[in-house]
Amino acid sequence: MQTSGAAFRAALAAEHPLQVPGVINAYYALMAERAGFRALYLSGAGVANASLAVPDLAITTLEDVLTDARRITAATKLPLLADVDTGWGGTFNIARTVREMIRAGVAAIHIEDQVAEKRCGHRPNKQVVSAEEMVARLTSAVQARTDPDFVIVARTDAYAREGMAGVLERARRYAAAGADIIFAEAMTSLDQYRAVGQAAGLPVLANLTEFGVTPGFTTSELAEAGVALAIYPVSVFRAMNQVAEHVLRTIRSEGTQRTVIPLMQTREENYALLDYYRYEAQIDQIFAQDGRADDDR
Question: For 107, which of 46, 79, 112, 246 could close a Cys bridge (C-beta 3.0–4.6 Å)?
Answer without folding.
Answer: 79
